[in-house]
Design brief:
Structural class: mainly beta
Strand content: over 45%
Strand order of the largest sheet: 5-6-2-8-10-12-14-22-16-21-18
Largest sheet: 11 strands, mixed
Number of helices: 1
Length: 292
């Protein structure tokens, strides 16, 4: 198969993404700013781990030796007493002087982004306030990234070279001029990534309601696994089709043993290499050559 791989859109029009976060109903507002420098321990791998809940995470790669955090905190509350509750209940904790440094927002129910919330046994409280943290970060370029947020903000990364594990729920993920390998997953929003060096390890890019658009330099050698339900698939790399994989488990029906076939479209780019997964439910998938 040469140059293009396209599937016809299936089903109805794209579903509208869920609203990221309702505008606050609260009139009592408190704003503050925090700046922090996080240093790594000497030796070993280095990872920046930032777990937000409400708000954006913006990261720029630099030649600095340490991580520079600039954080804007906004509390909106129903009353002054609720404001005091927010200041007490929602915590921002830092980790530094270790191979893994970062910042973690912990809410009133002791929840942390990226953990299995439903597994925690606790009495839930519904506070009368909203707390937002917006992170602007400068990070050494080769540091690995673990970034996570949920509501009211995008995750944007520029100019890094380390591996990455990036999660969002109600917002986009955009990564420009990056290298490394990893995953970038959201639920309501697009995922857009531009690589300066091709991944050498398996990687995945996923959404539920949003387009997937990933650009690679020339010389890519990889196996693509591409899937959408309401949308189309496209690549402008020279690609050869690969056989679909049958699921390891099957079932017997009417005296016949039936395997469930994986719904991904699989193609090989160049001589093949690490598997790169592109998946959305409502949106288009584009895996393309970088421009210039």
């Amino acid at each position: 198969m040469k140059r293009a791989l396209v599937t016809v859109a299936i089903g109805a029009a794209l579903l509208a993404p869920a609203q990221a976060q309702r505008s606050s109903r609260y009139d009592v507002v408190d704003e503050s700013a925090v700046t922090r420098t996080l240093s790594f321990a000497a030796g070993g791998g280095r990872t920046l781990d930032v777990r937000n809940i409400n708000g954006f995470i913006h990261v720029d790669g630099t030649d600095d030796a340490a991580v520079q955090l600039s954080i804007r905190k906004v509390i909106r509350a129903e009353t002054q007493n609720d404001l005091a509750d927010a200041q007490r209940d929602v915590r921002l904790e830092f980790a530094e002087n270790a191979p893994r440094v970062g910042a973690t927002v912990i809410d009133a129910n002791r929840q942390v982004c990226g953990e299995r919330w439903e597994d925690r046994d606790r009495e839930w409280r519904r506070p009368h306030y909203d707390v937002t943290f917006d992170f602007t970060i400068r990070v050494p370029r080769d540091v690995a990234l673990r970034l996570c947020t949920i509501n009211g903000g995008d995750v944007m990364v520029n100019g890094t070279r380390g591996d990455f594990d990036v999660d969002n729920v109600n917002g986009l993920i955009e990564m420009n001029r990056v290298a490394g390998a990893g995953s970038a997953h959201t639920v309501n929003g697009p995922v857009t990534v531009t690589f300066t060096a091709n991944p050498k390890l398996p990687s995945s890019f996923k959404s539920v309601n949003g387009n997937i658009d990933v650009s690679f330099p020339d010389g890519l050698a990889a196996d693509f696994a591409m899937k959408t339900f309401n949308g189309g698939l496209f690549t402008d790399f020279d690609a050869q089709p690969l056989a679909n994989r049958a699921a390891a488990a099957g079932e017997r029906r009417d005296g016949r043993f039936i395997y469930r076939v994986n719904e991904f479209t699989r193609v090989r780019v160049g001589s093949g290499g690490p598997e790169i997964v592109f998946e959305t439910l409502n949106g288009n998938v584009r895996a393309r050559r970088s421009k210039g």
